[in-house]
């Protein structure tokens, strides 16, 4: 292996190791550990419910037809 490849690999390992140590240290000092993951899951569920409501109500087709109509007006087709 060329010398430059070994140097690059070593630097990458040092950077990743330093990042991992810094991240682990920051997570240990947080007072609200785990709260972020719960919040993300809640947001994902909320977005899923909203998408399901839009798809289930048929509003998606109405929105799509409205957008197509307006784009057709702007472009000047049909």
Notable traits:
single chain; 78 residues; mainly alpha; 3 helices; 85% helix; 0% strand
Average the pLDDT over all residues and give the rounded result.
Answer: 75
Q: Can you tell me the residue ranges where pLDDT is under 50 for at least 5 consecutive residues?
A: none
Helix fraction, binned, reads over 70%
> What does the main sheet amount to?
none
Protein topology:
Blueprint: H1 3-28, H2 35-57, H3 59-75
Explain the overall architecture.
It is elongated and about 60 Å long. The model has no long low-confidence stretch (mean pLDDT 75). The protein has helices at 3-28, 35-57, 59-75. The N and C termini lie far apart (63 Å). It contains 3 helices and no strands. The chain is 85% helix and 0% strand. With 78 residues, the chain is mostly helical.
Task: Give a brief outline of the structure.
With 78 residues, the protein is mainly alpha-helical. The protein has helices at residues 3-28, 35-57, 59-75. Helices cover 85% and strands 0% of the residues.
